[in-house]
Amino acid sequence: MFIRLIFSDLRTNFIFFSLLIFNFTLGLAGFVALDSFKVGIQNAIQSNSKNYLSADLSVSARRLLTASEVQIAQQVMKDHNSGVLEESRAIEIFTMVNTSVGSRLVQLKIVDGQYPFYGNLTLKMKGEVGPGQAKEINSGPLAWAYADLLTQLNLKLGDSIKLGNLDFTLSDVITEDSTQAVRLSSLAPKIYIGTQTLKQLGLIEMGSTLTETRLYKVKPNSDLEQIKRSLFSQYADPAIQVQSPEDAQEESGRVMGYLNDYLGLVSLVGFFLAMIGSTYLYRSFLNSRVKAVAVMNSLGLSFQRALGIYMAQLLFAAFISAILAILLAGLMIPVIQMVVGRLAAIQVDAIFQPQSIGLAFMISILGVLFSCLPYLVSISRIPTWQLLQESSRMSLPLKSWDAIYFLPLLFLFYLLSVFQSHSLKVGSLFFIGLLSSFLVIFGLSHLFLALFRKMQYQGFSVSLKQASLLISRNTSQSIPVIMALAMAALLINLIPQLKAGLLNEFSVNKEVKLPGLFLFDIQDEQLNDLEKLVKSEGTTFTHVSPLVRARILSVNGVDFEKSIHEDTSFKTREEEVEARFRNRGFNLSYRDQLSAAEKIIAGSFYKDPWVEESGQKPELSVEYRFASRLGFKIGDILKFDVQGAEIEGQITSFRAVKWNSFQPNFFVLVQSGVLEGAPKSWLASLPQMDSQKTLSLQEKISKAFFNISSVDIEKVTHRILEMIHQISWAIQFMSLISLLAGLFVIFSISSEQSQIRQWDLYLMTVLGATPKIVLKQSFYEVLLLSLFSSFIGILLSFAMAYLLSYYIFDALFMPDFFWPILSLVIVTFFTTAISMIASRTKLL
Amino acid sequence: MNNIFFKFASDQSNTFSRSVLNFICLFLLSFAAFSASAKESNQPKKLVLLGDSLTEGFGVSKNSTYGALIQEKLKKNHKNWTVINSGVSGSTSASLASRMKWILKSKPDLILLAIGANDALRGLKLESTKKNILEAIKSAQGESAKVLLAGMLAPPNYGKTYTQEFERLYRDIAQQTKVKLIPFLLEGVAGQKELNIADGIHPNEKGHQVIAETVYKAIEEYL
Prior knowledge:
The structure holds two protein chains of two kinds. Chain A is an alpha+beta fold.
């Protein structure tokens, strides 16, 4: 009987339910597509990071790992990988290679046959060596060397080189190494050999400086951070490093962190857009069924039973919508991939995640139950006499205390925010920001409607006046529309606002000349001769900085360094790491002006050199992340020990250094006029040149100045810039996709809104208004509502983007006015056009 | 006669006056010399530790460096010496020329030359390392500063040839310049997990205590 009632009502209201399902489906499809692209992009970018690490996780130390340390790692990996252990071993050392021509420093990488799990080495003769293919060098005393080593030592394939006690045959040349981490510390060319030669090599003994790494592969979609935490909890020795792919990238790891948080936010935007759309539709559906429930109740059916019918219908519609949304997203994704495929900087394979599908169902079904709770409570209060009233639909008699029934829904939203963003911080901030915005919109919409009620309409057209009055008097209909549209406009505009700040952070100032070669350990007396040599080779320094070594002794008179005494030790691994950081000494530098890659973000940069007679302390400019890590503030007085001499300075500015300009970054710049006489060395950079010229210049410098080391960073800069290009593309793409998802939701809200308005239109026609007047009034009504809603939503999106940027993206906020104006036009046009098309169809 | 007496007396009187004057002058001079020498003996002697990150104390606080520990020990043993830590992380022997010039301005009495570890880690040519250290010692000796040389060892992973040549380098320099040699600054510390920080290269607080003992024994004869 109950089920029959449900389906007979569904059949009777087939068109109504079809529209409801259509609207549900659109909102959810946007979310599923957005979530799938998010995972696709995360996978694509993470696979690059995995190449650098050559594994999912690594455990390493700058010594040989003990048997028990390896056992711990193996056990944890087995526990998280269904008992399967996929492990590879690599040892890195610096050593001297000896050939008939001479000897020189090389970085020796000793790997087993499993290496690498991810990434490739490209060999001149054998082509690509992919996962688990480093078997050749494990079959005998064979070596693969970087191409520059062959040039430096005049070697050719098949030649013999001596490493330790063994002679190796140079069996191939490495032309590309995607497993090379993005680091700037590659002092020497690399040679790969196999671990089976380790014992005879005779280079690993007591006192050897080396890094042993155990690489691990785990099953796809494993929670790497959780495995990392499990490992860390079992290693007390701070010498043990556990790295995930993101950690392997040093500075670019921060960018990856930004991207992950950004994608988390995109996903939340998609989720909340779908939730707002769905909640609006549920509420609208229940409103439309209030009268029917009251009728059934008056005919003897209990409220619970009557409500049960409509709840079951709603759940059925939500379930069908979720299925259709997944199918629709499945159709949308290949189309979007095809459209953007040619422009894509990365190969993005949008993948349906069980999580996205599960969430789509959860939004539909749990959303129905939780968002309907306040209405279910209020519905039993409907007096039967209201049945006699003529109206399109009856409004639910909500009371202010019914708001507490929204708490379960808010709690669900909060939990899902944290779950979906994979971050307590991001999820919580987003939720708080959104809830605050919701309350502000609620307050402003009441204010707006009150103003409309009290406004004098002299000089306004009758249609505009009528439209304003209709909106302002019919608050039960207007406020939900304003709330839904304003929240949608806020969410649509939020991601582009965050995007602007991030893209600005990734862009490189055109004035900045990217360096190709770093030269360090230049002595005072070598600088002029080195400059002459560089000029004679047709190039010049792009940057020269003095480096003065110093310790920070105190900050505002309080000891800065962390000491431990004989009878104590560090309590935690973190405490020891922090103490070692503080105690390690720092490089100071000085110069009169900022470089093109720097900007002052707080305080002011000193203008003139320091004069002792001024009685003032020398001014200091501190890099802001360094300052933030150590809790420095503007005005703090730092005392330094500069190789025996104590000097004091006062922090007068914080600097940000554009890290992707690859310019040397000094934590502390001291006002000129203070350190010039102190013992120092120099750091210089040279511009990017063709590889042959770079190699020849490196050789000339090392012959003329034995101590000066040069590091070729051109390949590294290209790889990082390529990665940034991919990330920037991903950010822009997801911003666009979130806009599209938002439009779907706006479409479903507008479409539902035009259904509701039908009754008003008919009523006005019955009262004698011409279709033209009715349409004009309807136009003003929708225009006013959508203009106000999108304007409020956009304004709040600035505030929320600022809040999120401040707490999540290191205050990288940059207001962008193009997207807000565009979204104002789009939302207003979209809603007005949909309503007008629907109204015209009904009236004409 | 009167004149003679007078003359004698006068002579005597003159002699006496001169003697008194001479005595006063002598007393004053002696007093001045005594005060100068007393003042000089109050002036602490200077020990400069010229080195790299091992001397700078990379990763440990200034108070835990072997330089600070030696200073403490000198004070405890009532030796009037000041220890100046001139360690610079990452520095190679190439920096010695300018740094030696700088520290010689402060007229040190004893210089501990503890450099070369970075030359080894960067595989620099040993001839240049030798030349740099030799020149630095000679310029210190030219200014009458005593020099104590702390030897370094290259890690075994640099191969037998390089490590043997590197070890010999310090012996050769010590012989050539007749300076005292501490065979290995990190004796008992290198390679000991519990005496080094996580990077396995730099000594921790306990490691610095061992180095301080090694260096103190070597400088005792100069105190």
